Amino acid sequence: MSATHRPLPWAINQLPNDQDRSAAETATSTAARHTLPHQPTTNPAPISQHQRLAVLRRLLTDEEIPPLTRVAATLVLLYSQPLTRILRLTLDDVRQHNGQVSLCLGDPPTPLPEPFTELLLRHLDQRLNLTTATNQNSRWLFPGRRDGQPMTPDAIERRLRDHQIPILSGRTSALRQLVLQAPAPVIARMLGYSDEQTGRVATEAGSPWSRYAPVDEHPSPDHSDME
């Protein structure tokens, strides 16, 4: 199996304990379907790996944090997904088959392990902003108050900050850890970043994979119009 298509088992060691480590493997198990919007060239200083794991541990255990916030924060801190990408997810991106729940962060969908599966399903049952007649059939994973629209980045950002979730520095830390343990182009496909974005982070982090140049057996479609 080539390096461009195999699972990424190194991510298992990033989670707090044995029960939860399988979540990291699924975070990078598939190629991403969408290229992320252009991000600023200057990344905030990442939080430490110890700090990131501590926040993830809190998300697993703190029942005072609403499921919406816990799910969104996990996508940021484990999958290095920006809020703008998270808000584009819909119910159709959540797949359930024979008891296995998957999330379409890539193609094929990524299987989600416990305890994140439980959190996601709880969030689905408790989605907000569905009480009005015009919005009760919303397909957004994070529905907004306006009919047919998802939550705004400002709204979900406030929720995360209310619970001291380090958004930008946490996402930077997640991506940094991934490119230290795998080639940047592989991570780009897995998470929907451009090669330039992950390559820059890999260079800044001193990744031993910085000179890796995989053969693109299955080139991704051109998403240059998704800026």
Percentage of residues assigned to helices:
25-40%
Kindly provide the radius of gyration, computed on alpha-carbon positions and rounded to a whole number of angstroms. 17 Å
Count of helical regions:
9
Ends apart, CA distance between termini: 33 Å
Q: Which parts are unreliable, with pLDDT below 50 for 5 consecutive residues or more?
A: 1-15, 18-41, 219-227
Largest sheet: 3 strands, antiparallel
Alpha-beta content class: mainly alpha
Strand fraction = 5-15%
For the biggest β-sheet, the strand order reads: 2-3-5
Mean pLDDT, nearest integer? Answer: 78
Approximate shape? globular
Number of E-type strands: 5
Order of helices and strands: HEHHHEEEEHHHHH
Written overview of the protein:
- The protein is mainly α and 227 residues long.
- 39% of the residues lie in helices and 6% in strands.
- The protein has 9 helices and 5 strands.
- The strands form 2 sheets. It has a 3-stranded antiparallel β-sheet with strand order 2-3-5, with no helix packed on it.
- A hairpin with a 2-residue loop joins β2 and β3 (100-103).
- α3 crosses α5 and α8 crosses α9.
- It is globular and about 55 Å long.
- Mean pLDDT is 78; it is low at 1-15, 18-41 and 219-227.
